[in-house]
Amino acid sequence: MLPLIYNNKKTQYIMEEKEKKDALESFISNTTKNPPIVPPVDEGQNGGYGDSLNYITVDLSVLPAGLFYKPGTTIMIRAASVNEVQAYSSIDDKNYLDVTEKMNEMLSRCVKIRFHNGMIGTYKDLKDSDRLYLIFMIRELTFQKNSNLAKDVTCGECKHEFKIQFRSTPGKDSPKTFVNYEMDKELEPFFNKMDRTFDIPIGDRMYKLAPPTIGIQEVFFKNIKDSVQAEKTPNVSFLKIIPFTLWDRKTITDDGIKAKEEEFKKMDDMDTFLDLDEAVSKMLFGIKELKMSCPVCGEEVHTDMTFPKGASSIFKRGTSLFERRAKK
Ligand SMILES: [Zn+2]
């Protein structure tokens, strides 16, 4: 039998000492005061709510797009409050835009970001590819006792049937199981360590490309939604590539998008478009799959990153009230 070794070192959290104080007290008062549910917060530091809950610092090297934050950037997260879990639970699993909006709303409340120069950002500065990973980190902080959310798998080697937990960090009864996409080998030589971009010469100019922020993706999602409502066909190829050229921004106006779209349409060189499309297609960052060693034979077992019970199940307890009662 192969030994089961899990690398916990990289996923350790560092507690912010000053923020530990009175956390329990504020948690209790925050929950009993029943604050109203308000729209996503984008006003920097305090976010106006729940700021005194424990924040922990995220090790950027575990995030799918951790490499794309400039050196000195700090991302902190805290557990979700009862009200935030309630707001999330109203998610419409069949509506991709609603799922994304609800996740962003959760991030707007439970994440803080600080840049190397001391400036405070918002959830809009986070990379879009890190959304789901951070959501799971928050989930694991929120449900420390009863966090089971798992998929049934069968070991290809010994046919043992077991469950793989969804874990972005190691837990009491499960190792970390998330596996991120790795950087495409062909992109590596173009990586600019200062700007955290891929600098690729295409046509007669140098393109700087990197995974877009949540802020930029929100604007583009809204743009797609508006075109569909206005019964216009969204320019899909444009909408796929342009966000990667806006890597250093967290917003763009409607006129800004129009200008970019015009610039893009004028691109008379077909090769330039095809090269850009190829480069962006290689920039796949996010959670690739779940992986765990079979508890019987030690063989690695993989399963895809889909939610059998929908995205709304992320902030539900793994075992329901009734399952827990039945066990007693
Ligand atoms: Zn096995």
Describe what you observe in this structure.
With 328 residues, the protein is α+β, with helices and mostly antiparallel strands. Helix content is 33%, strand content 16%. The strands form 4 sheets. Strands 1-2-3-4-5 form a 5-stranded antiparallel beta sheet. It has a 3-stranded antiparallel beta sheet with strand order 8-12-13, with no helix packed on it. The chain has a 3-stranded antiparallel beta sheet with strand order 9-10-11, with helices on one face. Helix 3 packs antiparallel against helix 4 and helix 4 packs across helix 5. The site of zinc ion has 8 residues, from loops.
**Roughly how many Å apart are the termini?**
34 Å
Content-based structural category: alpha+beta
Taken from the alpha-carbon principal axes, the silhouette is globular
Quantity of strands, as a count: 13
Question: What is the typical, i.e. mean, pLDDT?
Answer: 82
Radius of gyration: 21 Å
Bound molecules: zinc ion
Strand order of the largest sheet: 1-2-3-4-5
The biggest beta sheet is recorded as:
5 strands, antiparallel
Tell me roughly what share of residues is in helical segments.
25-40%
Sheet-strand content, in percent, reads 15-25%
Regions with pLDDT < 50 over 5+ consecutive residues? 1-52
Number of helices in the DSSP assignment: 10
SSE order in H/E notation? EHHEEHHEEHEEEEEEHHHHEEH
